[in-house]
Amino acid sequence: MMKYEVLRRHIGDKQYEQGDEREAVAADVAHLVKAGVLREAGEKKPRGKAEPAPKNKAEPAPANKAGPGRG
């Protein structure tokens, strides 16, 4: 039996939540590993690219068309 880290919630012999540890026979959960639901415990997480810093695209507040005293 091997230990696996749960990456997505699923129901097996019980309900598993993300982050839980599950112990199972490799042949029984091979389809879940392939689908990205489980990962072998201790396996490093794949590193993705860093997200680019968001550009500040805030626009100034629009001026009211109705000036003071109108209405």
UniProtKB/TrEMBL annotation:
Biased composition (Basic and acidic residues): 40-58
Residue ranges, compositional bias (Low complexity): 59-71
Sequence segments annotated as region (Disordered): 37-71
Protein name: Uncharacterized protein
Organism: Arsenicitalea aurantiaca
